[in-house]
Every structure is written in C-alpha cells, then in structure tokens.
Amino acid sequence: MTMEHKKRIITISIIGSILLIIGIILLPVGQNLITKILHQKLATLPDNPGYILWRDMDIPIYQSFYLFNITNPDETLNGGRPNVKEIGPFVYRINITKDNNHEYTIINCL
C-alpha cells in the first residue's frame, strides 16, 4: 500500500466516524423536531390552513342500509329455515357541520 492510499483510508474513516457521531446525536433531536412540526400543522386550530377544510367538509357522505324481511315467521319459530327477502337500499346523506368544537350532524333521507 502506498502512503497516499493509507491517507485516503484514514481520511474517509475519520469523515465516516464524524458523520456517524453527528447522526447518533441528531437522531433524538430530529424525531422531536418532526413530532413538534406534525403537532403544529395537524392541530385543529382556527389559524391552521387545514381547519377550514375540517370545519366545512364539502364531501358528501352517503350511508346505505339493507334490511331483511323474514317471509315465513311461523315456520321459523317452529324451527324451520327462514326465508328472507332483502329490502333496500335505504340511502341517507349525512351532512356534518362543526362549530366551536361542537359537532352537529344532520341526516337527510334520499
């Protein structure tokens, strides 16, 4: 090995060790910084940009329900196999409005 090759290996080892030490030191600091930024940006406070989207949700929410009607209740009560008929769908549109951290829900039948 030449002297120049040994100098390169030592230089790269020193730089790698310094970067490793900096990484180990900054690991908990970086995690705390990321957590702090997420809590600031995701909080539902009136001055955050996402608050208006959270408060005035313009996405329609539809809920569908299906019911089943037993067409032979007497036979079923006597241990027979029930015959069922599907009824539905019953569709509801749910409008959600939020005001001062109180949630009001209005359900409209379609």
From TrEMBL:
Subcellular localization(s) per the UniProt record:
Membrane
Taxonomic lineage: Eukaryota, Metazoa, Ecdysozoa, Arthropoda, Chelicerata
Q: Which Pfam families match?
A: CD36 (PF01130)
Q: Which InterPro entries match?
A: CD36_fam
GO terms, molecular function: scavenger receptor activity
Which keywords does the record carry? Glycoprotein, Membrane, Transmembrane, Transmembrane helix
Q: PANTHER family attached here?
A: LYSOSOME MEMBRANE PROTEIN 2 (PTHR11923:SF51), SCAVENGER RECEPTOR CLASS B TYPE-1 SR-B1 (PTHR11923)
Q: Is Transmembrane helix among this UniProt entry's keywords?
A: yes
Segments spanning the bilayer are 9-30
The primary location reported for this protein is membrane
Give the top-rank taxon of the lineage listed in the UniProt record for this protein: Eukaryota
What are the GO cellular component annotations?
Answer: cytoplasm; membrane
Can you name this protein? Uncharacterized protein
- Please state which protein family the record places this protein in: Belongs to the CD36 family.
